[in-house]
Amino acid sequence: MTDKSFFIDTMKCTACRGCQIACKQWNKNPGTKTLQRGTHQNPADLSVSTFKLVRFNEVEVPGGEPKWFFFPDQCRHCMSPPCKEVADSKVKGAILHDETTGAVIFNPKIKGKPADFKEIREACPYDIPRWNEKIGGMAKCTMCIDRIKEGMLPACVKTCPTGAMNFGDRNEILEKANKRLEEVKGRYPDAMLANPDDVRTIYLLIDDPKKYHKFAVAENATGLTRKMALKRLFQPLNSVRHMIG
Ligand code: SF4
Ligand code: SF4
Question: What burial class does residue 212 get, using C-beta atoms within 10 Å of its C-beta: 0-12 exposed, 13-18 middle, 19+ buried?
Fold first, then answer.
């Protein structure tokens, strides 16, 4: 077993939501009561029972025609997960980083205080983790680690009918993503891969990331929130103070 990654080719996504349903089924997550909110997207947001959400954004382009942006949102399984960095200092054992696959796994059995989990969510540059009030833990995408350890694909990838969802060894996935980017760059000069060096869920986007989703890419190139970056910046100073004190 080696380091794994997803490649999500948003150009091939039709917003059928098969991946969203497959994720619910495999994780035995209950259905969510939905509302007609005037958009194809449902439910409105990720939750402890919705680890994968196909976001749908309608943007008016010059000429008055609407343009649709589909974004199958999920945990990025960051290379150096900021969520775990906070958890290690606040709620030990709440987040594990699998050494072989790179999957970032939340342990719902570890209980914590709401304020700690709030800080963990704020540390995530992609706004992924959600709080489960009933069990006092957090939940999110598991990379289907139980499936991949048995040689199966993650449920969302297995079910995707268009080839938008891809999964495999990180080197191969990076190669595939870069090759696809080269293919589309001619037609879409703004095409990009979202933070490919920092995450294990790599999206191909062909327009301004904000048109897909507020958190489609991290605020900065290193995949850290401003709060985390500042914390890191002042860490050496704090250690020196600790040594002197
Ligand atoms: S996307 Fe967020 S929740 Fe997922 S590993 Fe990265 S920091 Fe953690
Ligand atoms: S299953 Fe594939 S095509 Fe359908 S919404 Fe998910 S990523 Fe898009």
Answer: buried
Instruction: Return the ligand 1 atom nearest residue 127 CA.
Output: 2
Mutate to test the pocket of ligand 1, among 90, 106, 140, 198 (most ligand atoms within 8 A of CB): 140
pLDDT digits (tens, 9 = 90+) for 39-82: 889 999 999 999 999 999 999 888 888 899 999 999 999 999 99
Distances (CA, A) of 172 to 68, 146, 193: 29, 21, 15
Verify whether ligand 1 is closer than 6 Å to residue 143 (CB atom). Answer: no
Decide: 95 in ligand 1 pocket, CB within 6 A: no
How many Cβ atoms are within 10 Å of 132's Cβ, its own excluded?
Answer: 15
Give the whole-angstrom CA distance, residue 76 versus residue 79. Answer: 9
What is the predicted pLDDT for the residue at 123? 95
Cα Rg, the chain, nearest whole Å:
19
CB of 102 within 6 A of ligand 2: the answer is no
Report the residue among 12, 16, 204 best suited for mutation to probe ligand 2: largest number of ligand atoms under 8 A from its CB. Answer: 16
Cis amide bond preceding 43, omega within 30 = yes
User: Of the candidates 32, 80, 19, 38, which has an alpha carbon nearest to the alpha carbon of residue 224?
Assistant: 80
Confidence of residue 139 (pLDDT cuts 50, 70, 90): very high
